[in-house]
Amino acid sequence: MSKHIVTGALLAATLTLSAAPAAFAAPPHGWELSTMSVPAAHAMSQGEGVTVAVIDTGIRTDHPVLKGRATEGPDFLKTNDKSQPWYGEHGTAMASSVLDVAPQAKVLGLRVIREEDDPNYQGGRMSNPDAVSQAITYATDHGADVISMSIGSRTLLDSYEVKDLKAIDYALSKGVTLLGAVGNLGDKRAGQDNAISYPSAYPGVITVAASTQDGSRASFSSVHSYIDIAAPGVAINEADSRSSGRTSGEGTSAACALAAGVSALIVSKYPDLTPRQVEAVLERTASHAARRYSAETGYGVINAEAALQAAAKLTPEKKVVVGETGTDLHFGPGDDGTPKTYSQGVDSFKVGVSAVGALITLILMIGGFWLFKSGRRVRAQGSWGVEPLGPAAYAQSLQPSALPQQNPYQQPAPPQQNPYQQPPPPPGQWPPRQ
C-alpha cells in the first residue's frame, strides 16, 4: 500500500546526533517525524527492548538503514527468490520507517505477499491464503510486541478470513499491539472504489489513514468509519531496497509503519499497557481529538510526545480477548455509533457479483414457476383421460378386448325414467306449458 516516488522532494532538516544513539545516527528525514513530534518523544523513549514485526513482502536485512537492527523470519510463501532485485522492496521501506521513529527497536520481517514487480504477482491475491494468520501467530510466539501490517486485500474471495481474525485475537490476548493500513483506494476522481480492506478492517487492529503536511487526508487514502488515527503518508523518506540509499514514497503503508514506530515508543516505555490502552492514548492525543472524529483521518495525526505523556498517567488494564465484554473499546469509532462524515463509496466488484447472483436467482425463480405451472397443466389433462396415458393408450382403450363382455342370455335393461322429467312439448310449442 505504498507508492514509491523516485525523487528527492521535500527533504528537510536533519535530526541531531543527540536525538538518537551514536550507533544508529538518524539520517536526513522529511517532514514526517517533526509533524508527529518524534524528536521530542525521543527524550522519553526510543523503542528500547521492543520488537516490531513487519508483515509484508520480506526485508533486506543488509540494507544500511536496517543493518544490525533487523532479522528475517520464515517466508510464508515458501519461495526461493531472495536474490531477485525486486525482493523485499516494499517491506524494506516499511521497516525503515519503523526504525526512523523507534531507532532502538528491532524489526522482524515476515513475508506474506509478493511485490508488484514479481512476475508471479497475482494482482493482490494471496498465493498462500493462510500466510497472514500464520505470520501473526509466528510473530506473537517469537517475541513481537507490535505488529505492523502495511498490506491489504480487496477482492470478494480474498478478504475476510476467520483464521486471520483468530490469529489477531490470539495476539491481542498476549498483549501485542497490531496496526493496519486502511488502503489507497479513496480517490474517487481517479475512479477508485474505496473498498474495505483487510486486515485493517478486523476488530482489534489500529487502522491508520494517510495525511498530508497540513493534517488533511491524502487524496488516495481510503475513507471508512473504522479508521482510528492518521500519520504522514506523502513524500516519506524511506529506504530504497535497490540501492544503499533512500527514496521518496507515499501511501497508507508508510503511515502505518510510522504509527507502528510510535506504538513501539509507547510499549517500550510502558510495557504493561494493553493494546486497547495504546490505541486509546494515540486517539486521545491526536491532532483533532478534542474537536471531532472524522472517517477520513480518525482522531487526527499522531502526536508521539503527547501520547507518551498521556500513557504515563494510565494504570495498566487486564488484557482482554476479542469476544469478551468491553472489547468494543479495541475497535474503531464506527463500532460506537460515530457518524460517518464522508461517503464510503461502492465496491464495483462486489456490486457486479451481487447483480449476477440476483439475475441467476431470478432465472431460477422463473424456471421453477414455469415447471410448477406445467405440472398443474399435466395433472389437469390427466383427469380427462388424455394425459398422462397419451393418445396411443387412449386408442388401445377402444379395442374390443378392452370393452366389458356382454352376456348373450341377459335381457337388456329398460331405460330408467326420471320421475321429475317433463314430457317434451308438442311440435311448434315453446316454451313448454306448466
Automatic annotation (TrEMBL):
Active site: 56, 90, 253
Annotated region described as Disordered, given as residue ranges: 396-434
InterPro entries xrefs: Peptidase_S8/S53_dom (IPR000209), Peptidase_S8/S53_dom_sf (IPR036852), Peptidase_S8_Asp-AS (IPR023827), Peptidase_S8_subtilisin-like (IPR050131), Peptidase_S8_subtilisin-rel (IPR015500)
Compositionally skewed regions (Pro residues) per UniProt: 411-434
Spans traversing the lipid bilayer: 351-372
Keywords: Hydrolase, Membrane, Protease, Serine protease, Signal, Transmembrane, Transmembrane helix
All copies of domain Peptidase S8/S53, residue ranges: 47-300
Signal peptide (UniProt feature, chain positions): 1-25
Cited PANTHER family: CEREVISIN-RELATED, PEPTIDASE S8
Entry's family note: Belongs to the peptidase S8 family.
Protein name as catalogued: S8 family serine peptidase
